[in-house]
């Protein structure tokens, strides 16, 4: 009788272990999928960061060009004002 009881307990414990293993496998699959998604997101973020760095360099260049143009306009306006005063 005791052997049957122990056998029944082992069968129940084995079934519980099978269920736990299935749940662990499911969780491992979900975690693997989430990890893959995070890797993809990181790649996209790195790509976007590179694009933003390039855009920033371009904006710096444009700002320098605007500064040069502003200086040229100041000189031209000053020259024009000087000529107007002479006239």
Search tags:
1 helix, 87 residues, mainly alpha
Give a short account of the largest sheet: none
Mean pLDDT: 96
Cα-atom Rg, whole angstroms?
37 Å
Q: How far apart are the termini? A: 126 Å
Number of DSSP helices? 1
Output the structural class: mainly alpha
How many β-strands, per DSSP? 0
Share of helix, binned: over 70%
Topology as a string of helices (H) and strands (E): H
Unreliably modeled segments: none
Give the amount of beta strand, in percent: under 5%
Characterize the overall form.
rod-shaped
3D architecture notes:
This protein is mainly alpha-helical and 87 residues long. It contains one helix and no strands. It has one helix spanning 2-86. It is rod-shaped and about 125 Å long. The protein starts with a helix and ends with a helix. The model has no long low-confidence stretch (mean pLDDT 96).
Summed up:
This protein is mostly helical and 87 residues long. It has one helix at residues 2-86. The N and C termini lie far apart (126 Å).
């Amino acid at each position: 009788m005791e052997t049957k009881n122990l056998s029944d307990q082992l069968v129940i414990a084995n079934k519980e272990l099978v269920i736990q293993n299935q749940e662990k496998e499911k969780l491992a699959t979900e975690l693997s999928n989430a990890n893959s998604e995070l890797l993809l997101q990181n790649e996209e973020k790195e790509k976007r960061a590179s694009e933003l760095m390039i855009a920033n360099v371009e904006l710096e260049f444009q700002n320098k060009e605007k500064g040069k143009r502003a200086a040229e306009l100041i000189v031209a306006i000053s020259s024009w004002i000087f000529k107007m005063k002479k006239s």
